[in-house]
Amino acid sequence: MNIEWAFANFVGAPGAVCHHQPTCGRSVIVEHNGDVYACDHYVYPQYRLGNMLQQMIAEMIDSPQQQAFGEDKFKQLPAQCRSCNVLKACWGGCPKHRFMLDASGKPGLNYLCAGYQRYFRHLPPYLKAMVDLLAHGRPASDIMQAHLLVVNK
């Protein structure tokens, strides 16, 4: 997790990686032999999309199989995630990490959920300050001095 990903979600910009986006499926993995898989966390036969020596990667990414893979990320979110106040920052994280039981005893909760909640609940004042800095033509990195002033008081 890094601050740039959280900042992108905060301002409504597209994220650089799929972990904290509503859907996934645009970041495929290519193996040494040209085989293309849905994701680097899903290099299993059932997630093989094809081979880049025989098919264009763009075709594989836009395939119905890959589109369904990406949409399942949101469709399979447990109710606990859907009602969480950090949903639009977290989006349930990576589906590969969703193997814990939620509060109702159903599987599908991300094992990093507690950490994500703490992280995403802590960030808003700092992300807002970064937005304000940028709006005034200052670098977002100036947040470091602002944070130091708060800590040193």
From TrEMBL:
Transmembrane domains' residue ranges: none
Xref: InterPro entries: 4Fe4S-binding_SPASM_dom, Aldolase_TIM, rSAM_sf, SPASM_anSME, Sulphatase_maturase_rSAM
Assigned EC number: 1.1.99.-
GO molecular function: 4 iron, 4 sulfur cluster binding; oxidoreductase activity
Cofactor: [4Fe-4S] cluster
Domain 4Fe4S-binding SPASM residue range list: 25-85
Record keyword Endoplasmic reticulum present: no
Keywords: 4Fe-4S, Iron, Iron-sulfur, Metal-binding, Oxidoreductase
SUPFAM superfamilies found in the cross-reference section: Radical SAM enzymes (SSF102114)
Pfam families: SPASM
Domain of life: Bacteria
Protein name: Arylsulfatase
Organism field: Escherichia coli
